[in-house]
Specification:
Layout lengths: L2 E4 L4 E6 L20 E5 L2 E7 L8 E11 L10 H11 L5 E4 L4 E6 L3 H10 L3 E3 L1
Parallel strand pairs: 1-8
Antiparallel strand pairs: 1-5, 2-4, 2-5, 3-4, 5-7, 6-7
Helix pairs in contact: 1-2
């Protein structure tokens, strides 16, 4: 099925007011495997980033681990997230999912990482640590 890379360190899911400027400290250093994603709506800004770079003043949920589908994936591929989320849901593991142009990512609670990787491996995926 899919190869998944377990990214190092813990991640944070953050919420900021919609008019908040983002600090340059948020962005990843070149050459690291870190991932940062930012989504904006009129209701607020959502940021997913390494826990140590969570924006000051944000509502922050920490202790997430990030799994990245080894890619790149073709944008026309369908069902990738479903093949990840379905076994995690069956194992009662909470998921935060997001996609980039090249691949998909899922965050799982750090305390449930063992259950998450076991469920993904049982579904035929390979988790690279």
């Amino acid at each position: 099925m899919l190869d998944l890379a377990l990214l190092p360190g813990e991640y944070a899911v953050c919420r900021l007011p919609a008019d908040t400027p983002l600090s340059p400290r948020l962005w990843a250093e070149p050459g690291t495997s870190d991932v940062v994603t930012v989504s904006w709506t009129a209701d607020g800004i959502s940021v997913i980033c390494p826990a140590g770079r969570a924006p000051a003043g944000a509502d922050v949920e920490t202790d997430w681990r990030c799994l990245r589908v080894v890619g790149p994936l073709d944008v026309a591929v369908t069902g990738t997230l479903a093949t990840l989320v379905d076994p995690l849901t069956a194992a009662r593991v909470s998921v935060v999912a997001f996609s980039t142009y090249d691949t998909d990512h899922v965050l799982v609670p750090a305390v449930r990482l063992g259950a998450a990787t076991a469920a993904l491996e049982a579904a035929g995926h390979r988790v690279l640590r």
